[in-house]
Specification:
This protein is mainly α. About 70% of the residues lie in helices and about 0% in strands. Helix 5 (about 75-90) packs antiparallel against helix 6 (about 90-100). This is Carboxymuconolactone decarboxylase family protein.
Length: about 100
């Protein structure tokens, strides 16, 4: 970790691709996620929607958890999954609900 930024990248990434872990921590989360043009809540909604649409369930679980921490409700996440089912495909929406069921409050 560089600076005082918290570590966000998983240990597995840090072990096998340390530069990717550093970029995750120092650029993505310490810079991009901290920009004032969008709130953390808005960034979470956008990120969750993109991950659902792309079928990136491995990252979706963590970002759904982050969304809950950023003030997005479980009901709103369920609505995002429902809405995206029509735009990204039924399996994408259904998979997102399965991920949501695994995410703690």
């Amino acid at each position: 970790m560089t600076g005082t930024n918290p570590r966000v990248a998983p240990d597995l990434v840090r072990e096998h691709a340390p530069k990717l872990a550093d970029l995750t921590d120092d650029v993505l989360f310490a810079d991009v996620w901290e920009r004032s043009e969008l709130s953390p809540r808005e960034r979470s909604l956008i990120t969750v929607a993109a991950l659902i649409a792309l079928g990136r369930d491995a990252q979706l679980k963590g970002h759904m958890g982050r969304a809950l921490q950023n003030g997005v409700s479980r009901e709103e996440l369920a609505e995002v999954a429902t809405h995206l089912a029509f735009y990204a495909g039924w399996p994408a929406g259904m998979s997102a609900v399965n991920v949501l069921a695994e995410v703690g409050e």
